[in-house]
Amino acid sequence: MLFVYTALGPIAGIVGIPYTLLIGDINPLYRVAMWIANAGARAAGIKMEIAGFENVPVGRPCIFMCNHVSNLDPPVVLPLLPGRCSVLLKKELMRIPILGRAMRMGQFVPVERGGKREAAQASVIAAGEALASGLNILVFPEGTRSRDGRLAAFKKGPFFLAMETKAPVVPVTVSGTQEMMRKGSWAIKPGMAEIRLLPAIEPSEFQTREELLRAVRGAIAEALPEEMKPLG
Questions:
Q1: Is pTM beyond 0.90 here?
Q2: Looking at the predicted structure, is the pLDDT value of residue 93 above 90?
């Protein structure tokens, strides 16, 4: 996985970033980046199964909300999602040379952990602009990886975004990655990752973001394997 990313990633960035600026279209670079992400995961012996495409609303930008159990989740889940996606991610990742520039061009949205209210509002505004431009959004509402594989508490920010934009929320479950790359370890074991896209939830049907949060978290919890369900 590391070989694929270090061998192909810089080449894609060095060639793709100037080409994108020249033609004014990020889509070719995005497709190449997703191919590299998927190829790296497969090179590590990770097999993937995804189901539920019929649950994604057609012709409307969506917010995909996924549980988070491993560093493998983004490169496993993101390339399989339909359309082009922005991602809410740690601000620190934007500082990585070449990759950070490509993510900014792709309208990825940096989130400052434990940051000030103004920073959180700026992230929501940027994510709203990405949705308004026709992009989907992938967000891991737990904010960080689960320590034990079980679904943890959700942050409220993504649900403020959903209520503000009224974009449909597609709950997503990922399982198997917690066994392939555990939190705190760089070792990767081959295995099967299962991704499920659940029926979309309309924010307009809820009066508060707390109600929407409970509905989305409940849908994800219900669809997870028993050993990954929250205890409380």
A1: yes
A2: no
